[in-house]
């Protein structure tokens, strides 16, 4: 299928061929129309067209993160990660309409006409995959091109609701762009008297045609407003887009005592305190298109709110379409341009240059005949690869292309003696972009294609945590050797089924515990190889907080930081000691505020050779301080690794030190080489590590020590 993409490095608009997205918790829709959001999309394009210095000035928070990465990972690693993010094209669009072609929801059937919403979902593409709570049926009598306005209509609807207006009240709307003109019509449908305000004469005339009772520019505004309502506007809705604070200042003068000002547009917020204080007026910043926005449970997982949360984003979408059906909203006057998908660059050129006046700009799609089965795109030639692998090399298929895969794993593929078969991801854009960059033969949004491919004999799984176990099991049963990122499983049942599948299949399974493959780790292990005493180990992780809404905290998808991250450090201790953990005692800080229960803890492990290891994991430190420090004490000797850039070894008063200045040596390249060369992984150690994280969780919950017994999972 074809999709509109923004090159974040150059700012150019491209129409690329990508696989049809996979259906998850909603539907796959064949788009008929999508609406270009001139304000939102233009700002992103303008940012992309700036130089690296310009991008840095516009995103100072991102620059701060890069600087922090330089301190922990080294300048080379930090630069590579930053450029990797910029190299990934950005999907555009968030409002579309079309026909359901595949469904995973009992709320929709194939053939339903639907309106779709959401950045990353209702994009400018021939097919889109949309969660069920971001999708609504289109009423009879409403055309696809009208329904394509539903998302921006819901934004206007939510802004009007935040104004808390009732029949007969007087409302001012400042800014008569697309959302402002929709807001005028919504307020008129609600029985309000409306004054429309803009500096553009043609928009004022259009607002008047669409029902505004009074229109005005800023000249003579307050006289006209007093003529409409001598005591001031009951509410003011700001839908303008400007860095200036003039709209909020004007709103303060227009609104009545104890009235309400609702900010929908991106405007300057230098609120004149004296004006608002004198009137005790309320200022509300309207958040997108209703309750549910930015809530992963609602948007991604489809968990709806009770009806007493009356106007969720989906219900606002439905209400907007009902007003369109009743002909209370006129969209024909707002559609100024319609472009075919292939001419999308021309549409954006029109918007960015302003060579013609525009309001509503639509992209129109024609059936391409591929249907929702077009989930594979093949690339001619060797793609981005510059070196051909040996004829006898194995063929690797990869599933997943998230940040970790692209920054830590895939950059090493070109140096491996391996042929790259297929790459599978859930979204077509990610699949196409990453597959082309690293030289895969094809990309797909159906991971089963990788497992069914007879030419692929090894599979790398780098998806979200909850998919590791089921995908690894399926790959083993398909007769493939498996490299799976950590954690191996997120629950005991998943781990038990992996052990069973691995034993039955006879295939190799390696877990991405990369730190044991670091050259610095190898030197530390060799340093303690002839120790005559048990070891005492301390692994301290100054992780920094991960936002609570991040998927890794989700019980279903991530399993929390203890399951997701602590496994690395336990495995490293196993590697250094050559021993298995047999017991764990763990304690955690109780959750408070944004702190998660299993994000600040200490776990002390006893190993079967008598060694003791403690993991201290905290999100409470300063990110400028080293992230990972591991210390080993044994046989009158000490070893320390800091951030896998600095190794210090001491014995008998003598010290040696190695420092990596440009980048970390975390062992990613070495572990991948070991996998493709067919080295036998320490599967039992990986299972013991995973069991230890589950036992640490149980220890925190129960307050008691927990035994680590591989027999629980049949090992």
UniProtKB/TrEMBL annotation:
<dbReference type="InterPro" id="IPR020843">
    <property type="entry name" value="ER"/>
</dbReference>
<dbReference type="InterPro" id="IPR055170">
    <property type="entry name" value="GFO_IDH_MocA-like_dom"/>
</dbReference>
<dbReference type="InterPro" id="IPR013154">
    <property type="entry name" value="ADH-like_N"/>
</dbReference>
<dbReference type="InterPro" id="IPR013149">
    <property type="entry name" value="ADH-like_C"/>
</dbReference>
<comment type="similarity">
    <text>Belongs to the zinc-containing alcohol dehydrogenase family.</text>
</comment>
<dbReference type="Pfam" id="PF22725">
    <property type="entry name" value="GFO_IDH_MocA_C3"/>
</dbReference>
<keyword id="KW-0479">Metal-binding</keyword>
<dbReference type="InterPro" id="IPR011032">
    <property type="entry name" value="GroES-like_sf"/>
</dbReference>
<keyword id="KW-0862">Zinc</keyword>
<dbReference type="InterPro" id="IPR036291">
    <property type="entry name" value="NAD(P)-bd_dom_sf"/>
</dbReference>
<feature type="domain" description="Enoyl reductase (ER)">
    <location>
        <begin position="58"/>
        <end position="363"/>
    </location>
</feature>
<dbReference type="Pfam" id="PF01408">
    <property type="entry name" value="GFO_IDH_MocA"/>
</dbReference>
<dbReference type="InterPro" id="IPR000683">
    <property type="entry name" value="Gfo/Idh/MocA-like_OxRdtase_N"/>
</dbReference>
<dbReference type="Pfam" id="PF08240">
    <property type="entry name" value="ADH_N"/>
</dbReference>
<keyword id="KW-0560">Oxidoreductase</keyword>
<protein>
    <submittedName>
        <fullName>Zinc-binding dehydrogenase</fullName>
    </submittedName>
</protein>
<dbReference type="Pfam" id="PF00107">
    <property type="entry name" value="ADH_zinc_N"/>
</dbReference>
């Amino acid at each position: 299928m074809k999709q509109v993409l923004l090159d974040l490095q150059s700012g150019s608009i491209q129409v690329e061929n990508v696989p049809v997205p996979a259906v998850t918790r909603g539907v796959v829709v064949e788009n008929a129309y999508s609406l270009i959001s001139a304000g939102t999309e233009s700002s992103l394009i303008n940012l992309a067209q700036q130089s690296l210095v310009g991008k840095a000035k516009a995103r100072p928070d991102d620059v701060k993160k890069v600087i922090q990465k330089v301190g922990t990972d080294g300048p080379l690693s930090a630069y590579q990660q930053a450029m990797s993010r910029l190299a990934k094209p950005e999907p555009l669009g968030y409002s579309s309409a079309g026909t359901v072609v595949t469904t995973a929801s009992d709320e929709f059937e194939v053939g339903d006409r639907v309106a779709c919403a959401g950045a990353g979902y209702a994009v400018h593409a021939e097919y889109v995959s949309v969660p069920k709570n971001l999708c609504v049926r289109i009423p009879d009598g409403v055309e696809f091109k009208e329904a394509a306005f539903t998302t921006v209509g819901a934004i206007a609807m939510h802004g009007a609701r935040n104004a808390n207006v009732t029949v007969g009240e007087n409302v001012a709307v400042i800014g008569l762009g697309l959302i402002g003109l929709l807001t005028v019509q919504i307020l008129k449908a609600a029985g309000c008297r409306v004054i429309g305000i803009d500096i553009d004469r043609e928009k004022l005339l259009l607002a008047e045609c669409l029902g505004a009772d009074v229109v005005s520019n800023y000249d003579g505004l307050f006289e006209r407003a007093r003529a409409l309502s001598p005591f001031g506007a009951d509410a003011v809705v700001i839908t303008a887009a400007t860095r200036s604070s003039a709209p909020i200042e004007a709103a303060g003068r227009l609104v009545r005592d104890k009235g309400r000002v609702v900010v929908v547009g991106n405007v300057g917020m230098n609120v004149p305190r004296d004006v608002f204080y004198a009137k005790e007026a309320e200022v509300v910043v309207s958040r997108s298109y209703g309750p549910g926005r930015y809530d992963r449970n609602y948007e991604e997982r489809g968990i709806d709110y009770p009806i007493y949360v009356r106007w969720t984003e989906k219900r606002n979408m439905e209400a907007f379409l009902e007003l369109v059906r009743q002909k209370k909203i006129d969209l024909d006057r707002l559609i100024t341009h319609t472009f075919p998908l292939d001419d999308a660059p021309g549409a954006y050129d029109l918007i960015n240059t302003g060579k013609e006046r525009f309001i509503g700009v639509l992209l129109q799609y024609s059936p391409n005949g591929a249907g929702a089965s077009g989930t594979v795109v093949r690339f001619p030639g060797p793609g981005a690869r510059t070196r051909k692998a040996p004829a006898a090399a194995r063929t690797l298929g990869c599933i997943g292309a998230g940040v970790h895969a692209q920054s830590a794993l895939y950059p090493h593929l070109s140096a491996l003696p391996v042929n790259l078969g297929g790459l599978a991801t859930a979204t077509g854009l990610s699949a196409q972009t990453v597959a082309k960059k690293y030289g895969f033969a094809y990309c797909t949004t159906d991971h089963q294609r990788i497992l069914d491919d007879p030419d692929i004999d090894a599979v790398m799984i780098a998806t979200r945590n909850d998919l590791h176990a089921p995908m690894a099991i399926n790959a083993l049963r398909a007769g493939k050797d498996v490299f799976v990122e950590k954690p191996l499983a997120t629950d005991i049942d998943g781990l038990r089924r992996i052990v069973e599948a691995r034993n039955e299949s006879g295939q190799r399974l390696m877990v991405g515990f990369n730190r044991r493959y670091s050259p610095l780790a190898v030197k530390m292990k060799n340093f303690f190889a002839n120790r005559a005493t048990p070891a005492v180990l301390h692994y301290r992780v100054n992780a920094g907080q991960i936002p609570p809404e991040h998927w890794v905290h989700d019980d279903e998808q991530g399993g929390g930081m203890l399951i997701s991250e602590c496994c690395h450090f336990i495995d490293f201790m196993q590697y250094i000691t050559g021993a298995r953990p047999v017991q764990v005692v763990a304690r955690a800080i109780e959750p408070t505020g944004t702190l998660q229960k299993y994000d600040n803890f200490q776990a002390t492990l006893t190993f079967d050779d008598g060694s003791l290891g403690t993991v201290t994991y905290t999100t409470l430190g300063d990110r400028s301080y080293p992230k990972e420090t591991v210390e080993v004490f044994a046989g009158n000797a000490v070893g320390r690794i800091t951030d896998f850039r600095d190794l210090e070894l001491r014995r008998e008063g003598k010290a040696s030190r190695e420092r990596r200045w440009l980048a970390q040596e975390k062992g990613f390249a070495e572990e991948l080489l070991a996998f493709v060369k067919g080295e036998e992984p320490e599967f039992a150690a990986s299972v013991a590590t995973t069991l230890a994280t589950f036992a640490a969780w149980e220890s925190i919950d129960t307050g008691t020590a927990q035994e680590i017994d591989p027999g629980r999972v049949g090992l």
